[in-house]
C-alpha cells in the first residue's frame, strides 16, 4: 500500500508518517523503482502500536525508541516492579532503561513511582544487602531512576504554590528520597530548585534567599552528617523562608532543635504538610 492508504488505515496524516520515519526511524518502508514508499500490514501494526503509546502519555521519540527494542510494557505496577527486579538480576541495562522510560512516561508518574518504582528500589537495596545483587546491579537501577527524576525536576514549571529549594546535608549522598519528594512537590504545583547531594547549608540558604523560595528542604540519612546541619542555617527569626527536615536520620526532635519543620518518608503526607509550611 502507498502512504495515503497507510494514512487512511491508521488515521495518521501522511506528513506525520514521513516525519516519524525520517526523524525517529519508526517506519522502514520498501521503495519502488521510482522511489515511492510501499507499506504492508506490519507497518499498520507499528503505527497503531505507536498511537497506543502516545495515548499512554509517551512522546513520539520515547515510543519510537521502545519500538526499536521490541518492548512490551508490563501491565500494572506489580508487573512493572517484577520486571525491574528481573532486569536487575540479569544486569540488563537496556531493559532497565526501557522499563523506566515506560514508567516515567505515565500521566500520573507520582502514582507509578509510589506503587512500582519505589518498592522496586527498596527490594533492590534489600537484595544487595543480602548479597543476591551486586553493587553494580544496584547502581544500574538507582542511577537510572536518579537521572530520570533529575530530568523531570529540571523542567521549568510555573510556581503555582511557590518555590522550594531541596538539598542534602553536607557529605550526605543518599538523594533518591529527596528526589522523589521533589517529584511529588512538582506535581503539586511547586517550582522545585534541586541542589542535590552534599550541599553546604550556607549555600542552600543563599540559593533560597536569592530565589525568594518559601521553603528550604534539607535531607539527612546518615547520623554522622547531622552535626553539619546546624552550621549555616541561622535562627528562624532571621530566615526569609520556612525550613523543613527529612530523611532516615531526621526526627521531630532534631527538626525542633534546628527551628525547622519535620516531614516523614510518606511523600503524600509530606506534600500536605509542606503546603502549610509554605503558606
Question: Can you characterise this structure?
Answer:
By secondary structure, this protein is of the alpha/beta class. It folds into three domains: 3-68, Multidrug-efflux Transporter Regulator, Chain: A, Domain 2, CATH 1.10.1660; 77-151, Orthogonal Bundle (Methyltransferase, Methionine Synthase (B12-binding Domains), Chain A, domain 1), CATH 1.10.1240; 158-278, 3-Layer(aba) Sandwich (Rossmann fold). Helix content is 56%, strand content 11%. The protein contains 13 helices and seven strands. The chain has helices at residues 3-10, 14-24, 41-56, 60-68, 77-89, 93-104, 109-130, 135-154, 176-187, 201-210, 227-230, 252-257, 267-278; strands spanning 30-31, 37-38, 162-168, 190-196, 215-219, 242-246, 261-262. The protein has a five-stranded parallel β-sheet with strand order 4-3-5-6-7, sandwiched between helices. Helix 9 (176-187) crosses helix 13. The longest helix is centred in the middle third of the chain and has 22 residues, at 109-130. The model has no long low-confidence stretch (mean pLDDT 87).
Name of the CATH architecture of the largest domain: 3-Layer(aba) Sandwich
Strand order of the largest sheet: 4-3-5-6-7
Helical amount among residues, as a percent range? 55-70%
Distance between the termini: 61 Å
